[in-house]
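Hi team,

Filling in the usual template for the complex we talked about on Friday. All components are listed, including any nucleic acid strands or ligand strings, so the model treats them as one assembly.

SUBMITTER: L.P.
PURPOSE: interface mapping
COMPONENTS: two
RESIDUES: 1153
SEQUENCES:
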Amino acid sequence: MNNTAPSKAGLQGGLVGSYRSSAGTGYDELLDAHGKPRPHWRALLDGLDDLSEADRAARAIRLDRRVRDTGIAYDIFSDPRKPNQRWQLDLAPLVISAAEWRWLEEALTQRARLSDAILTDLYGPQHLMREGLLPPELVFSDTAFIRPAQGVLPEAGGLQFYAADLARGDDGQWRIIDNHTETLAGIGFALANRVVHTHITGDLFKQVNGVRLAPFFNNVQSTLTTHSGRENARIALLTPGPLHEDYFSHAYIARYLGYLLVEGSDLRTKGNQVYLKTLEGLKEIDLIVRCVDGRSSDPLELDPGGFDGPAGLMRVWRRQPRLIVNAIGSALVQNRAIGCYLPQICERLLGEELRLPDARRYWLGDTASRAHVLANLDGLVVRKAQEGTGRPGQAALGQDTRALSEADREILQREIKLHGARLVAEEKIGFSHAPIVTRDGLDSRPFAVRFFVARTPAGYQAMPGGLAMTVDPERAVALSAPDGHTRDVWVVSDDEQAPHVSLWRPTLETARVERSQRVIQSRVADDLFWLGRYSERADWTMRVLRGALRRVEEDGGPATGRHAARKCLDVLLSKSDRSTAAPSRAGTGDIEIEKLCTDLISASTGHRTLENTFEGLYRVAHLARDRLSLEAWQTLSRFRPGDTWVTTLASAPPVAVLDLLDEGLASLAAFNGLMHENMTRNHGWSFLDMGRRLERAYNLSEAILTLFIPVPDAEEETASLLLLLELADSFITYRSRYRLDPMLPLVLDLLLLDETNPRSLAYQLAALARRLERLPGSKQSTTLPEDRRLILALLTAIRLADVESMAREPNGATLERTMLEQIQMLPALSNAISRHYFNLTEDAPHRVHTRIEPHSRSEQSP
Amino acid sequence: MMFEVSHRTHYFYSYPVIQSQHLIHMSPRPCFRQVIRNHSLIVDPAPALRQESIDAFGNPVVLLDIEVSHRELILHSRSTITVSAPPPLDPSRSTPWNMLDAHILGTGRSLDLDVLQYRCASRLTTPNLDIEDYTVKSFRPGRPILEAAIDLNQRIYDDFKFDPTATDISTPISQIMKQRRGVCQDFAHLMLGCLRAMRIPARYVSGYILTHPPPGQPRMQGADASHAWISVWSPEAGWTDLDPTNGLIVADEHVTIAHGRDYDDISPIGGVLLGGGDHTVSVGVDVIPVG
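RESULT (copied from the run log):
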């Protein structure tokens, strides 16, 4: 696109006519001082103008839907009844001109070089402190200064990732309001925003001629591979785990770059090496991309309560300083007070003039600054000098002094004197405004933006994009955006863009993706096993519900059908333990069955209710999501607790529930199909499959026992057989094979013994046996492990069963014994698999500490 | 004085420990007034990896990685050490405490970072307003640093009661200040909090103290103990050790193991275990004067 082309937007018509800047005396990104759109926005405005109002609204809705499906907004462990961590993505991006980007990139990479140089000095010769360019108490009071990193960090190969939060003041100048040097600082959110946004607005992106992100991430990949010193490096992204507010970003970027996503408990040190615990034993790790706090990276040498990294990591790191990016200790340059001293430091370390300064701050450890602040407390915000990096937009607000009572103000003044070394005071700054799309056209909002920089062999490179968030200008000199209203950042290119390259292609091209996925952490195997169990449990429960409601709503058939359905509902609700008498047929009115169905969907009691199952399903899917394809994940998003589908299911009338169940079953079938078609047949897949087989075997055995013991009369037997065939999804198979009404021996043959029927018990057990056979370590020992012994017993019992005679037995004793045996041994098998394969992670490390033995001072000379 | 020090720690675990890693500060450091004649640290079971180095505060430190399953662990440190008494002190001649900034920063020389780092509060020594209020009574403007510090040392000795049942390892100094009870470690941390509220460089010292049996009774074996006290810095005297638990200026009956900002930096035995269940520990310390 070139900027001189005729532009409707230039004529003040259309959308831009609806734009009401609320920037006031501040800077407006869209309009210049004369109220004309700036040239680099025109292509976007034209593009938006060309869309009908309905199309814009539809795109906004699709965008919202996509954000939810991708999972950016969700924190799975938060209370589902509480509002989610919000995350909205606006249809309008923030547009940055090519010329401005050139300036920004130079300024940002200078800051990355400067941060690197400061760290190298502070953990090395410490000239800055000795020469008085940086107050020693500022550094020594910062808990992010990690002593054991002294002398090690300078050998680490340089600061790898840097990010900065910027705001543009009323004078039109950018200023840095926060620096991020500890972790990846939410780069995954920025990438996910871009992927989601261009999915909906790819045409606009082309019209604007935006710069793509893929080449940047390609460079990051090859840089890290080079950094590790190994061509086929095993690279792990170390995350604190799903409880961390930034977990989405960790999982997303790990998958995108093709790295393993690991937690501290997945790793262990041995000698001078870090290993990943896998099903096949310990595997060496070549590079750790650190997304955990430096202080929590080694409970042995650093924060004794921090178990986010493996004990002994510091010891290994001292021998291999390039093992970890960013190096442990890097958070030190996030200290907000350093900004006060940067111009001189930049001259001293780089011999350059500082291009992009920090927002104006005062370090309260300095006597003169403190005196100034104490005398002018009104209008200043007091804030911690060091604040960790969490989810973007979650920076703390700082203390506004105007609202304080006289007594509180006095305490604050004393606190400032006592703890000044850890505090800064800041003047409020202006934030520039940029447009957002509303129903009425364009509106304006103040924002701050996070930019990302990475080290490459050719020097630091800025990601041509970013994460813009709407801020409340009254409250912040930080990226504090509790509303989670975000915008993608588009950098306009000067050049023709290369033809579209899929963002996902670089990872597919690298051999190490395949390599790393072959390694299955014990923890991940556990999660996949339960993913299999929960998805099958959800499937079965929905089939039971559908069977029951159909018998009420649709066919109005014989009471025997409803009675059979009720027995299945009861057992899932744990209301019947089979020893008590079965409910009488008279007690199976429609209303009663509907009530039971409602209970099975959402009753607070009973661990097998559909809601509980969905909750478990979604939780383990979340835990294992770096192993799932995006499509597979999206099919499951329907089952998220609190999602519309789930809440509607709990409140809809029975007829509508039937439709919803059909949808739910279709989603699960799609999920299973995707897993079956798309997941490599590694050990992880084996565990997923085993989980599903085990759950299905159990449910089927339980249903047979429930429906046919005690032995029903002939009429009810037929109804029960029909229901069973429906639950086991084998009705068509039966009819095509026998063309007869269901008969017990034939149905039992099909559902118990027939190893060619993927729904039969024998098929599940045989599959389980095959998977166990192929797992690592299954042939090492001379004695059979517990899990193999159990599956052999289960499978043999079924293979030896004689269904003809079982079906003839008037009291059904053999059938009962056979099914009970399955029901008792299957949970034992599940436990045995857990013990055998997952227990590496069960045993959490813990720290011991000796207290100095007290002794009485009466023994002392005074 | 010359001492033979034996420090034996014996752990018993209720379940086998699969892997254990330890960070050990049980090797006395050489320092002003203290010479290490002899030292050994015996570890049983034998570790797969043993690394000896010097930590960020200049203390000897031993890293252990034990890879064999074990239910007991013995760490036995034995040292022969000579300690000499400090030269006589004239507290009234040290710099006034509120002139310290001018003294440190006004010289134009390269700053002594090793001293300055001990001005700053650490996790276990962060003061609060109560502690500041308590401290200022000893620190009227213009009072020499050492005079004020010795006064504070005596006040803590007088105002606080030694009570091993009152605190545990996680009791913060704000709590010690309120309840006025604790053990040597608590008093050392509290006094560091006080001094750092005044921005006086001060450090935590761990070590041993010679105990004197009641008159007429023999020394009991293993009855001595680890001890903790503080060291305060003044431009004239350098580091001066004060023992708030006993209300005295340290002479030649204290043996130093290590210094740090607080206990976290130099805990004698820190460990991370896999397995082990509950543990019990028996500790025997002997400090025997040999001439």
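MY TAKE: Residues 91-250 of chain B form a domain with the C8orf32 fold fold (CATH 3.10.620.30). DSSP finds seven helices and 14 strands in chain B.

Thanks, L.
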